[in-house]
Structures
1.
Amino acid sequence: MLRGNFHTHTIFCDGRNTAQEMAERAVEIGFTHLGFSGHMDSEIRMELKEYNKEISRLQKTFRGRLDILRGAELDVLFQPRDEEEAGLLEQMEYLIGSVHYVQGADGNFFAVDDTAERLTEGCREHFGGDYYRLARAYYDLEAQVCDRLHCTFIGHFDLITRFNDDLHYLDESDPRYYGPALEAMEYLISKDIPFEINCGAYNRGRKAELYPNRFLLKNLQEFGGELLINSDAHQKELLDGGFDHAVRTAIDCGFTHTNFLEHGPDGKIVFRQVPLDGELFS
């Protein structure tokens, strides 16, 4: 089992457990690293002062037992509401760059991962029901994640497929779908930014595949991309959810290592490569 997770949500956003409970669970299951990454987007917005205060407290409380990192998950369309909020975000030790929303021609936006009904309505209203046009718009935004957010790694790259297992609105083997995805992927790799394997929907039984799917993951490896493996946990019981499957999938796709985030000797966050059959596994 991997002994760390860097995509973790708590009651500060849409998670079920407190940050304290998440940290206690991490120690209980043998984690050495835990990164908190509360949502900051147009619909889910943390109270950053309290969040920063609590994660800083936990870093001191668990020092020597668990390397706790303070981060946030930003949506590509996110805009700080004022200078104070922008300043508090600058205190984050790492950022996940994600796309949860797509904008229509009228400037309004809708979530691609909230409900199937909201996705269907948004595609019909803004893209005439053409899911391939929607996918193009989604991946056009994905390609901007690094430039807009200056993030540390890419979150759930193909979230646009969240409901595809049930609704089959996209043929993921169709060039109209994967062409824009690969274009965005290649551009982001040119920025030297890693991608996560995200187990969130898989470990909650909502999706048969991980993010990215195997086809995209194989291309990521062939393009020379780097990865992290994260559970996207919204409850403590799933803090390590899907890890065994993710490790096997990464190896099957040609990866030999994953990456961990940790505090370096100077206190700044650094990447460390971890062999996929190596020291951080039980």
2.
Amino acid sequence: MKLSFVATLYYSLPYIEEFYNRSCTAAARITPDFEIILVNDGSPDMSLQKACELHNRDARVTVVDLSRNFGHHKAIMTGLAYATGDLIMLIDVDLEEPPEIVLDFYEAFSQSDADVVYGVQKTREGNILRRIGGGLYYRLYNRLSQVQVPSDTLIARLMTRRYVQRLLEHREQLFGIDVLMEITGFKQIPVLVNKHYKGSTTYSFQKRVALAINGITSQSNKPLQYIAYLGVLITIPSGLYILLLLTQGLLGITTEVEGWTSVMVSLWFLGGLIIFVLGIIAVYLSVIFVEIKARPYTVIKDVFRTTSPHQTLSDQKQTDVDQLRLISVIPENQKSTAKE
């Protein structure tokens, strides 16, 4: 059995060496046959140089260098496409989720017939805005979507190769990795993890809001349905009021106009409501605009990998071509690999 560690790099220089050492130690307790895939997501610091240094020291380290920053989740999908293990451990390199949790995941995996063992935070860390916002996002998403995503899930998870192959078949450009992983299906079991919050993050508030909007609009059409319901709620009272005015006119009942306050309030309310509704529709149109381009998730600049003793250079080049093809287009006749 071969085990693959997959992690992405972005402002990760302070953590790479320790992550590598601890991952090797943990993986060796499971199997001597393992690899570490590091995807440099356009990190502005010296993360790439450090990762290449590890590659030069250890042939088990593969470094995939992207041409620019494409985003955490797209870099993850690229790293998964390069993993060759029977079991694949996805984890962040920042050590908030300790690499040693692969041992707990593997124990849970060995005692079940699951294809995925994923981490769940025992307690949500961060400031009060981050904790409340995270909880509201999962509640809102699960209310709007047909696919329920467990709350407080972590990136860290141990997956079978057949599950990862099916996961890579998704081609959405705007997505949340936790949503795609749930949509892919298969049996998935949680394991509680103590996440060590390091106090800072590259995920800004704007990025989190954009990720939440993309996650909802790319997977659910309920907001569009709610717009129709809102239109009905406005139309019915308006129609009744029109009937009232017509009845008063037929009966000769007149009402004195007292002022413009109520008129202006109504105009402002309806104007704001119309703009809000058009904004929701515009978000869905923007999703369509992005998706129909069918661009690749990422553009790979370089791959630093050592040819195995049983693999010729031409074989390695062909493997690179196959993996790039996997990232861009999934063959229709690709078959599922059975769990070992």
3.
Amino acid sequence: MSLFKLIRPTLLLLAAANLAACGFHLQGVFIAPAGMERTYIATGDRYSQFLREFKAELRAAGVELSDSASDATAIFTITFDETSQRVLSVSARNVPTEYEVYYTLTYSLDTGAKNLMPEQTLTLTRDYTYDSTLVLGKAREEELLREAIVKDLVRIVMKQISTL
């Protein structure tokens, strides 16, 4: 029997003990704070990518979405929701070679009498190289980056809400 086979269980036990000692634990599921049982989302853009993903995550977590602010127990307000791209670098012939896709979101959470989360702004960015010979592929890459940014934004906002 090799030495590694004898030491392996001990190494695994030590690794598990180190993880437990450092405070590591799996995240678990989203638990809505008290007062968010019936939430209204106030926004100017009812069709944004963020809003669609955010509503789906709230529903999956068991939060009921209200159609009006008057019968809601909490109001999640989105005051700014914008996505776009900007040029990062250009070639010697002044042709864009690299773009940055960004998504900016400003939001707050209130429960009528109490402000659970003051207004805050999140901006996430991703960059990609551009090649004019691969226009269709680069357009799809930009779309996928935007989707990934939205998922990250939703994850961050849900985590912030779960800590309340």
